[in-house]
Amino acid sequence: MKITKRFIFLDDIRDPVDVYPYTKEGIFLRNDWCIVRNYEQFTDSILEKGLPRIISFDHDLGDEHYMKPDRQEYIEKTGYDCAKWLVEYCMDHVLNLPEFYCHSMNPVGKDNIERLLNNFKNR
């Protein structure tokens, strides 16, 4: 399995150009991103087309991901769940992680995604 030239942008609402003003990363001005809006689209895209060259993660994927007051688990999967799936996929297929960014505005979620992916990358 090889890494393709695709770029995956995981975000439930925004497009890549929307995150440029606060990331200042020119890569988000490209117009060839494959935009995926949720966990299922993320995993399906990789299973169908292989690992992309670059992935950019958002953490909060829809209002449903927030915990209900009477429950202690997330309703909708988050970008962190996507990152965990990606690590397992790479381990199972003996692949290196693609290059990644985390454009999430959720500082705790962003830190968790980056820590997970960096720990796997630096193992």
For the structure shown, list the relevant keywords.
single chain, 123 residues, alpha/beta, Rossmann fold, 4-stranded parallel β-sheet, 39% helix
Give a verbal description of the structure.
With 123 residues, this protein is of the alpha/beta class. 39% of the residues lie in helices and 13% in strands. The protein is built from four helices and four strands, in the order βαβαβαβα. Strands 2-1-3-4 form a four-stranded parallel β-sheet. α3 packs parallel to α4. The mean pLDDT is 91.
- How many domains make up the coordinates? 1
Q: Which CATH architecture?
A: 3-Layer(aba) Sandwich
**Oligomeric status:** single chain
CATH fold naming: Rossmann fold
The CATH class assignment is Alpha Beta
Question: Roughly how many Å is the radius of gyration?
Answer: 14 Å
The secondary-structure element order is EHEHEHEH
| Order of strands in the sheet with most strands | 2-1-3-4
Arithmetic mean of pLDDT: 91
Shape: globular
End-to-end CA span: 21 Å
Strand content: 5-15%
Summarize this structure briefly.
This protein has helices spanning 16-23, 39-49, 79-92, 107-121; strands spanning 7-10, 33-36, 54-57, 99-102.
Secondary structure blueprint with pairings:
Elements: E1 7-10, H1 16-23, E2 33-36, H2 39-49, E3 54-57, H3 79-92, E4 99-102, H4 107-121
Parallel strand pairs: 1-2, 1-3, 3-4
